[in-house]
Amino acid sequence: MLALLFCVCFSGLIGRSWAMVFISGGYRVKIYDNQPGQAARAIQEVRKQLEDLQEECMLRGDQSASEQLALLSSHNDLCQALEGAFFVQECVFEEIEAKRSVFQAVESHVGEGVILSSSTSCLLPSNIFSQVQNRKRCIISHPVNPPYYVRLVELVPHPETLVEVVDTTHALMTAVGQAPVRLKKEIDGFALNRVQYAIIAESWRLVKDGVISVKDIDLVMSEGLGMRYAFIGPMETMHLNAPEGLEDYLQRYREGMKRVLNAFGPVPEFSGEAAERINKEMCELIPADQQHLSARRERRDQLLMGLAKLKK
């Protein structure tokens, strides 16, 4: 197999998750971290997660946990870590200068054919890669947290990115079991966060204006929209929700949709008295201490595992 490289500063959650995804596809992965010992500790964390997944019969790929772990190595030296790599996945924290410095350092150690990919969730490729000399091989590969259970990856090209780079990245993500989607051009927030923020904004407005409670607006999604959105998207939903498909749906509901959309309020500030009130209501349901939050995250991941199994 070819070698894949992860540049993982501080060995964070996303870097470890990417490593697990790639080794599940049978690829070698080198984890780099500029803090001595951090990459090695990340591998121990990956080991524990893979062994737990194997016990739950939810391990991805055709190889055992020990066979996948054998594909993983840790490195404190960037040059050594980049040797033999053909795909570099940057996973440093969401700060533009930090990401720029990583790619400047990486570019000086790799050949022209190596793809440079960032895990950013909303920073534009034209900004992240602005100091890279060869921007034709640069791309955003934005995962959804946690990537091991939620397969979507947004591929966002730099304006100069070659089509071949997007094709190769799409094929690679597909090969390791992810579900890549192509954005044809860069846009602030990409696709996922633009849709997500629209849902958050209207949910926030409804709670703020006293229309519905925090608990019940979450049920609107988890027991309503989310049930079908786990398997089909909004376009197919429209297509299936009228006897004769999408055109019929638009004829029936176009005016109603426009009326409701025009009634939406301004973008919320997400601060002040409303934020304090909504936070209080949320914390009454799930206290914001580590014990309760960790338990709910574990529950989330267990449910996502079950849903991933069902979607197979």
UniProtKB/TrEMBL annotation:
Known EC number: 1.1.1.45
- Would the keyword Phosphoprotein be found if you checked this record's keyword annotation? yes
MF terms from GO for this chain are:
L-gulonate 3-dehydrogenase activity; NAD+ binding
| Pfam families hit by this protein | 3HCDH, 3HCDH_N
Alphabetically ordered keywords of this record = Cytoplasm, NAD, Oxidoreductase, Phosphoprotein, Signal
Q: Where is the 3-hydroxyacyl-CoA dehydrogenase NAD binding domain?
A: 11-185
Provide the GO biological process annotations: fatty acid metabolic process
**Chief localisation class:** cytoplasm
Report whether Phosphoprotein shows up as a keyword of the record. yes
Query: What are the transmembrane regions?
Result: none
Q: Which residues form the signal peptide?
A: 1-19
As for subcellular location, the record says: Cytoplasm
Tell me where in this chain the 3-hydroxyacyl-CoA dehydrogenase C-terminal domain is found: 189-257
Q: Where is this site: Important for catalytic activity?
A: 142
* GO CC terms, sorted: cytoplasm
Which InterPro entries does this entry report, sorted A to Z? Answer: 3-OHacyl-CoA_DH (IPR022694), 3-OHacyl-CoA_DH_CS (IPR006180), 3-OHacyl-CoA_DH_NAD-bd (IPR006176), 3HC_DH_C (IPR006108), 6-PGluconate_DH-like_C_sf (IPR008927), 6PGD_dom2 (IPR013328), NAD(P)-bd_dom_sf (IPR036291)
Q: Which family does it belong to?
A: Belongs to the 3-hydroxyacyl-CoA dehydrogenase family.
Describe its assembly.
Homodimer.
Supply the name of the protein.
L-gulonate 3-dehydrogenase
Q: Which organism is it from?
A: Salmo salar
